[in-house]
Write a structure and sequence with these properties.
Elements: H1 8-19, H2 23-48, E1 54-57, E2 77-84, E3 87-94, E4 97-104, H3 108-119, H4 121-136, E5 140-142, H5 160-163, E6 168-175, H6 183-194, H7 196-205
Antiparallel strand pairs: 1-2, 2-3, 3-4, 4-6, 5-6
Helix pairs in contact: 1-2, 4-7
């Protein structure tokens, strides 16, 4: 299967889903999802197989068991190209466009390994430099973080801003108009290349300790 870009219909589908997030509407319009969202995502997954150990296209259904929000369907579609468990690149599509990025995330043991690496001078300063370069290239640095210093961490630590994170991502947004053609594949692989230092840092400093 060859990726030829997303159609405008993919973004229109999510604009409408946001207003009609219910089973009856979904069943009526699921052929649109299959043709304009699911199929191109599966094509993208095939394209990414050479750079990842596994590529996962996420299911469109929300887990509402423990949520106050009972809307049944996700208002975005995503995939994750994994280099190591919890480490790799992602692409998300919603009503506003496409998000391209990468990074690392995981459970409490993952966060513990990440913070141990950041506390160490060598890998910690290396990650600082990587993230600074990505910000300079236009990426937004994000991830779940604490409002204060983690328990047992010196609030005056020189990398306290990074230590407050549980996991870290870098992403950039592509508007709908720039995501409609096959050129998006080039943008995706540019992102893979540009985020390679961040992904490699995580694979070297976090994955072996899990």
């Amino acid at each position: 299967m060859v990726f030829t870009g997303f159609a405008a219909e993919a973004f229109a589908f999510y604009r409408e889903l946001e207003a009609h997030n219910e089973r009856a509407w979904w069943l009526e319009h699921k052929p649109r999802y299959d043709a304009h969202v699911r199929a191109p995502f599966e094509a993208l997954a095939e394209e990414l197989e050479p750079v990842a150990s596994t590529v996962k296209v996420y299911r469109p259904y929300r887990d509402v068991r423990f949520s106050h929000d009972k809307t049944p369907y996700k208002t975005r579609q995503g995939l994750f190209a994994q280099r190591a468990p919890g480490i790799g690149w992602f692409l998300n599509l919603d009503a506003t466009g496409v998000s391209l990025g990468g990074g690392f995330f995981g459970d409490a043991s993952f966060t513990k390994a990440y913070r141990a690496a950041v506390e160490a001078v060598g890998p910690g300063t290396e990650l600082e430099g990587i993230l600074r370069a990505l910000e300079g290239a236009g990426y937004e640095i994000g991830g779940e973080q604490l409002k204060t210093a983690p328990r047992g961490t010196d609030p005056a630590h020189p990398r306290i801003a990074l230590l407050r994170y549980k996991w870290v991502t870098a992403r950039r947004h592509v508007d709908e108009a720039d995501a409609l053609g096959p050129e998006l594949l080039d943008a995706l692989f540019d992102t893979v290349d540009e985020l390679q230092p961040m992904v490699a840092w995580a694979a070297a400093n976090i994955a072996p300790k899990r």
